[in-house]
Amino acid sequence: MSFPYQGEVFSVISALAWAAAVILFRVSGRKVSPLALNLFKSSLAGLLLLITAFFLAPAAGLENLRTMFLLILSGLFGIALSDTLFFICLNKIGASLTAIVECLYSPFVIALSLIFLGERMRTRQLIGVSLILMAVLAISWRGNEEQKKKQLFTGILAGALSMAFMAIGIVMIKPLLLKLSIFWAAAVRMISGAFFLWIALPFFRARKEILQPLILVSNWGVMVAASLIGAYGGIIAWVAGMKFTAASIAAPLNQLSTIFIFILAVVFLKEKLTWLRFLALIVAFTGAFLASWAGHP
User: Fold this and answer.
1) How confident is the model at residue 297 (pLDDT cuts 50, 70, 90)?
2) Where are the domains of the chain?
3) Which DSSP letter does residue 119 get?
């Protein structure tokens, strides 16, 4: 069953889903460490995505060893490393500032695409990248009273590295996405990310303390909801948006998550709203919108 503007609707739903998940992950992060949270999210979402891909999409292309290697490597960078650093950023500086830092994703993708895929940067993308960097520098230089400068710097650094690793994970498989099912690509990446987290866990001295919150059933509710809404539902809505409308329309609509996260953080998490944060948000969102718009120059 189809309906008017279904691609646009799914793209906005994807942005809303990720925004809601970020808020829930922020709540979970108060009791669960970033590593444990990523481990739980990736394991649950990976299993669900695998089941969905098995029933809804052909697995053609996965028999190619190079393809599988790149998808697994993408899971290491884009899920295991990126998401863990993202949760660290979320814990350190809160959801509203994380939403601004998250806009760095577009500049990293553009830079890597220029280097490795031979893509050209358009004038509006250059302007967009400049606006994003200005916004991030603004919140870096003028910290808020409730946050120590060291914590702010650590959070922004973790967020920037998260976006860099996420961009690496996407750019390395970008040519493959033209031939592979998005469902299978997402499933293999998510499961690979969970696998790398599990094999890394024994090397942490505090592994018992890391896993302890996951044993408490009282912590599961919010984590399950966040994983289902963001890592599973958000991916499916994103795929539908990309399928039923042009990428140049879907990408900027997906970027609305920046606005949604900021609003939800202020309303539900009671995070402080300042003029600096508000202006940085507008500047960063405008930059991300310009950078992600893939239309003709």
Assistant:
1) very low
2) 6-292
3) P
